[in-house]
Write a structure and sequence with these properties.
The structure holds 2 protein chains of 2 kinds. Chain A is α/β, with parallel strands linked by helices. Chain A contains 14 helices and 13 strands. In chain A, strands 3-2-1-4-5-6-7 form a 7-stranded parallel sheet, sandwiched between helices. The chains are: A alpha/beta, B alpha/beta.
Chain lengths: 361, 402
């Protein structure tokens, strides 16, 4: 049997690409396995082949082969390609960001996301089995009409990240220039992650509760225009100790996890939330909003704020987490326990199990 | 929720949200937050965003609405009245005679107009909502560009040969910074004892400088870089209020053990936090040669700002005009950056605004060090000049008055 994985974009450091690599390693032992993508970053070109390399043949056995399609964003080219393939189809759903928050900033991108949901629906009849990393995502699939859906934990292995030497430059900067506690946000700087709300909460925190607190926002600015709005917001409100770090290398990310005192996100849409798991792995107490799959990712570790936007409550929670040692300790202990539950080997076993169940004739 | 979280006996998280909400209410009620703070912040952000995003499709909707309000094509709306006698009758007859043809034409026009309206409605809807008119090919290309951009941003330095040079330079800078940070394993106290003298010796050496502050106006005198506090003790003996600043916590502790008041931290930063025009005097004894050039500038500026009228700034340091200093005192201390020339220091103080700046030469090297005059008058003159260059006063102090 041949087993092919298809992703829209393969890039180093990308969570979905990493997932595909993990599954590829698992499946290479039991089948002829490969990864195909529409957009391939040069750094991973040796491990990923272009879509057109996956050829049609008249071999009747192709109907026994299996494609695992990772769905996370609209791409009409890839979806049409998948729909025309003769192989059996399963999908791994990593959620599609809602289009609405992007309309005001980037209508084309909003269109892409909206089209992603339509494309996902078009897969219902062809797809035999769907796996996804959260119950929140699973519900979306079931609502769309997917019949066979299983929640399989994401394979998150922090051992590689933890073995990275932290960036000396970043450590030096924080140790010598920055005073006061550091709040860290990691995630793409996109409207549905609500960095604007986070800045409002930080404004209340730094003007009325804990003036010495710092906020560092880390993440690729996929919409440069939106990043500019946030930057202007910071300037106009004179938040001197808040900063947009932008995209970080692994070494910089590890340094930031080391120097931070707490992790905070007020995102209102998460299909899972890998940075939360990373923060728990680096012993950071967490403040987050109970939106999307955030609650189930945290599993009781972290201060879970209600889903309604409430920056003042968030500011209070941030101050508490930074100053109440007993609370910090309890959150760190719970975070460690939760992080240990998200065991990568268990996730590997469950993923392999799910794929083999479908693959078995 | 995982079992581990359920079985723990939570202490801090229970009821946390209620406590936090109560704190928010308290801050709101006590007026700590401005009224409608969050609404105003929301408005602020929206104003910035809408300022740039142009979305003016409402006018189109209004025009479409008025088009929909206009009536249907109808023969009844064609006027047959005329002001000329008998012509109205003719119109009515013609109207009736070609009624079949007129109605036929009007019906086709109506059908066409309805179709056009429907198309217009779709167009206006599409203008309103970007997600309804997805151009597949374009989106795929945009998608690909965005993804590539994203990848490059994730690894900004990887593929640009020119930037590897930048990375190398950053590493050099980091290395230089590490070297700059001097982390001795001996204590500053033992260093002071070995090279600067015992507390008793220091008190004898600086008594005259402390005496100068008798002329200072009322108010506290601050000794920056006070070390173990010998100079502060001298100031206390002339009955003046004083406190010190010391960056080394261990030295500060020794001073505090002697009942002296010391703040630990960066001197210029602490000085800047003092109230303007509040200090009677500021002293730096063998300190300024440890500072960077920028710190020297910042120090003199801040001192002028914080001293009251008549307040005195006394800075004592090694004298670079005496070459003897470089063979002895200056390079003993590895944390010295560079000596400060007396003329530059006096210039700085005058530029900062000090009205009177005097230079006192101090600690001439022992007489026996000097070259002995011998030979004829010319040779003796030369020896004198050489002695002046080699063995001038080892230190100097500038006394600047605001």
């Amino acid at each position: 049997m041949n087993f092919h994985q298809i992703v829209v974009t393969a890039a180093p450091g990308d969570a979905i690409t990493n997932q595909a690599f993990e599954i590829d390693a698992l499946m290479s032992g039991v089948s002829n396995s490969g990864i195909f993508a529409l957009n391939i970053h040069p750094d991973v070109a040796d491990r990923v082949q272009p879509l057109h390399a996956l050829r049609h043949s008249n071999d009747a056995n192709m109907a026994n082969d299996l494609i695992l399609f990772h769905v996370s964003i609209g791409s009409p080219t890839v979806t049409n390609f998948v729909l025309q393939r003769p192989e059996r189809l399963m999908i791994s759903y990593h959620n599609i960001s809602p289009a609405e928050p992007f309309l005001g900033f980037d209508p084309a991108f909003a269109g892409l996301l909206a089209s992603g949901r339509t494309e996902l629906a078009s897969l219902v009849t062809r797809c035999e089995f769907a796996i996804t990393e959260s119950h929140y995502n699973a519900k979306e699939l079931i609502d769309l009409g997917f019949s066979d859906v299983r929640v399989v934990p994401l394979i998150i292995d922090l051992s590689a990240l933890k073995s990275v030497e932290p960036s000396e430059g970043t450590l030096n900067h924080f140790r010598q220039v920055v005073t006061g506690p550091v709040l860290l946000f990691v995630g793409q700087l996109l409207p549905h992650k609500r960095p604007d709300l986070l800045l409002e909460a930080y404004y209340a925190l730094s003007t009325s509760i804990l003036p010495e607190a710092n906020l560092v926002m880390v993440g690729a600015p996929r919409l440069p225009l939106y990043r500019d709005y946030l930057q202007d917001f910071i300037y106009e409100l004179n938040m001197k100790n808040a900063g947009i770090f932008g995209a970080a290398t692994d070494a910089e990310l590890v340094a930031l996890f080391n120097v931070a005192d707490a992790f905070v996100t007020l995102s209102e849409h998460e299909g899972y939330c890998v940075p939360l798991v990373e923060a728990m792995g680096f012993d950071l107490p967490i403040v987050a909003r109970d939106c999307g799959a955030v609650g189930e990712t945290l599993g009781g570790a972290g201060v879970l704020l209600p889903p309604e936007p409430d920056p003042l409550l968030a500011a209070e929670a941030m101050a508490e987490v930074l100053t109440n040692d007993a609370l910090r300790q309890e959150l760190i202990t719970r975070g460690r326990a939760r992080h240990n539950e998200i065991n990568p080997d268990l996730a590997r076993a469950q993923t392999l199990d799910a794929i083999l169940e479908v693959a078995a004739p | 929720m995982p079992d581990s979280a359920k079985t723990e006996a939570p202490t801090q998280i229970d009821g946390l949200l209620d406590r936090l909400r109560a704190q928010v209410d308290e801050r709101n009620n006590s007026g700590q937050y401005p009224a409608d703070l969050i609404e105003r912040l929301d408005e602020h952000f929206k104003r910035m965003v809408y300022h740039r995003v142009e979305r003016d499709a409402d006018a189109l909707s209004n025009q479409l609405e008025s088009l929909n309000q206009s009536g249907h094509f109808s023969r009844a709306r064609i006027s047959v009245e005329s002001g000329k006698p008998g012509v109205s009758q003719v119109h009515r007859v013609v109207n009736k005679t070609v009624a079949r043809q007129t109605d036929g034409v009007l019906q086709q026009m109506q059908q066409f107009a309805d179709d056009v309206r429907s198309v217009l409605a779709s167009l206006v809807q599409a203008v309103h909502d970007g997600s309804t008119h997805v151009h597949t090919d374009l989106l795929t290309r945009i998608d690909s560009v965005i993804e590539r951009l994203d990848s490059y941003e994730r690894k900004p330095l990887n593929n640009e040969a020119g930037l590897s040079d930048l990375r190398r330079r950053v590493e050099q800078l980091e290395k230089a910074e590490q070297d700059r940070q001097f982390r001795p394993w001996f204590t500053n106290d033992s260093f002071e004892n070995a090279f600067r003298g015992s507390p008793e010796e220091l008190r004898d050496r600086y008594r005259d400088l402390a005496e100068l502050f008798r002329k200072a106006p009322e108010g506290p005198i601050v000794d920056m870089g006070c070390g173990r506090g010998e100079f502060m003790e001298l100031i206390s003996t002339i009955g003046r209020e004083n406190w010190g600043i010391e960056i080394d916590p261990a030295l500060a502790e020794i001073a505090r053990d002697n009942k002296l008041q010391v703040k630990v931290g960066d001197g210029v930063e602490i000085l800047r936090k003092c109230e303007d025009n509040s200090l009677a005097g500021i002293s730096l004894i063998q300190v300024i040669e440890h500072l960077t050039q920028q710190q020297q500038l910042d120090l003199v500026e801040a001192a002028f700002q914080k001293l009251k009228a008549g307040g005195m700034l006394v800075i004592e340091t090694v004298n670079p005009r005496s070459l003897h200093v470089f063979a002895n005192a200056f390079y003993v201390d590895p944390t010295h950056t560079r000596p400060v020339h007396p003329e530059y220091l006096a210039f700085l103080q005058r530029e900062a605004g000090f009205s009177n700046v005097e230079t006192h030469w101090r600690n001439a090297p022992p007489e026996e060090y000097r070259l002995e005059p011998a030979g004829d008058a010319d040779e003796r003159r030369n020896v004198d000049r050489l002695n002046a260059l080699l063995y001038s006063a080892a230190d100097y102090a500038t006394v600047a008055t605001k």
